[in-house]
Design a protein that fits this description.
Oligomer: single chain
CATH architecture: 2-Layer Sandwich
Structural class: alpha+beta
Distance between the termini: 16 Å
Strand order of the largest sheet: 1-2-5-3-4
Number of domains: 1
Radius of gyration: 15 Å
Largest sheet: 5 strands, mixed
Shape: globular
Length: about 150
């Protein structure tokens, strides 16, 4: 299945990739793998989607924010590779949720990201994953996700 065709079939338009927020690369390609730095969710005006989950950002909004992070992650990856058809498999996802004390549904939030990867890449989009809570995230973003992918030889 072509990931690029799948994006078109699903009427998904990737957002413009945002610049790094510090001294790092968004994507590093090494030994047939692409390692993606953590991405955060953004509103249509480019401002960050913020707030602790679920006290400020609802569970439903956090799931949508994680999907949004997936779009920005794919945008950064496509910018680096030229085409998402160069992705063979999602290897690992590390999802972080800006969590209020007592919140424990981190996997449900990060499913917003993971389900998008499965929609685009099929079963090759279902990689290993961690979903954890953090007491804060940069710029008070609700969700941050990093990812490693295997590239086509």
């Amino acid at each position: 299945m072509s990931a690029e065709k799948r994006l078109k079939d699903l009427n998904i338009i990737l957002p413009k990739s945002s610049p790094p927020a510090g001294s790092y690369s968004k994507v590093v390609v090494l030994d047939g793998m692409a390692h993606l730095s953590g991405q955060g969710p953004r509103n249509s005006d480019g401002s960050p989607i913020t707030g602790q989950v679920p006290s400020i950002c609802s569970l439903e909004d956090a799931i949508a924010a994680a999907r949004n992070v997936g779009l920005y992650t794919l945008s950064a990856l496509k910018e680096e590779l030229g085409s998402l058809d160069k992705v063979q498999r999602i290897i690992r996802t590390f999802g972080m949720v800006n969590s209020a004390p007592g919140f424990s549904e981190h996997p449900k939030v990060i499913d917003g990201f993971s389900n998008l990867m499965i929609e685009i890449f099929g079963e090759a989009g279902r990689g290993a994953r961690s979903a954890v809570g953090m007491s804060s995230l940069p710029f008070n973003i609700a969700v941050e996700v990093e990812m490693t992918v295997k590239l086509v030889d």
